[in-house]
Each structure stands twice: as C-alpha cells, then as structure tokens.
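Need Putative pre-16S rRNA nuclease's 3D structure for a figure. Predict it.
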Amino acid sequence: MPRVLSIDYGTKRVGLAVTDPLKIIASPLDTVHSKDVIQYLQDYFQNEEVEAVVCGYPTNEEGEETDATRHVNAFINFFRKKFPTMPLHLQDESFSSQEALQAMINSGSKRKQRSKKSGNIDKVSAAIILQQFLEDY
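Structure prediction for Putative pre-16S rRNA nuclease:
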C-alpha cells in the first residue's frame, strides 16, 4: 500500500517522515542535507510506493509568511519541476520544532540526541507535520 511522505525543509537539513502503509501513524524517516534531498527523494520514490508528499509550510502566529517561507517556496517550485505527477500538500508547521523538542524530552532523549546537529529534531518535526496532516485530512 502506498504511503505519504512528509518534508520539513530547512536550508541546511531536511527532516523526512513517512506513514505506515495504512496511513494511520507518522514515523520519523531520515534527515538529509538540503542539497541532497532531491536525490534522496528520487531514490526513495523508486524503491517505495508513495502516493503523496506533505511539505511543512512556515507561517508566523498571524498566519503570515516568514523569512523561512521564501526558502520553502523555492524548494516547492523545484520539487514540482522534478516530480510533476507527485501530489504535494502544504501543512502549517507552526511550532512543530518546539513540539518535536518537547516530545523528545518527554521520551527521555538525551541532550546530545536532541541537539540540532544530530538532525533528530528535524525528522521528528517532519513526523509531527505529517501526523497533523493525517488528523486534518
């Protein structure tokens, strides 16, 4: 059964998450460097059946675009050129990083595991974005 994949795009790192085959639960998948994400996705799409992609879309508390939004928009345009037939949905990602950090603290993750350099927070953020999309969908 096809899955749904989620992207938490950042200019340095990109967090990725994926649903289970029944599309009930979102799980962290990987963190890749932003320059490698398209190649990673090409390889993933060749090996796994993906029916749609959800991309976190940054907005501020008023729902307006942020500085990060222009980087995400550039990525979205590039993604759509590379994968024109793949359905792409946007999901508000407000506070997903803070929620990811809190979830990691609650699960007993050590400080080193929660550091930005580890990339764990990026893929957990992607899972939170995807889970919110599944709940809204």
